[in-house]
Please model this.
Amino acid sequence: MKNSKKGIFLLAFSLVVCIGLTYRVYTSSNLRYDRAKQIVKNEENIQGLKSEIKTIHSEIKESNSMDYVEQVAREDLGMVKPREIIFVDEGAKAPDQESQVEEGGN
Model:
């Protein structure tokens, strides 16, 4: 009788150990899968940031040119070249006025 109780106890203990090990393997594989997904996501993010860095570097190089400086001076600051005359057609609508007319007309 002692041998049968000892055998049942050993079987139950072995079953608990197997269940515990199975759970441990399952959780570690899920953790590994989550980490792999995070690595892929981070690599995609890195590629996007590298592309953005290249774009910014090209914009910086472009901004150092005299053509870019002239474009900003003309478009944003309203500057003109010496002896240059700008004619404004008062009958024509400005682009921002057109959008206001369209919105107000509805």
About this structure: The first helix runs from residue 2 to 63. The radius of gyration is 36 Å.
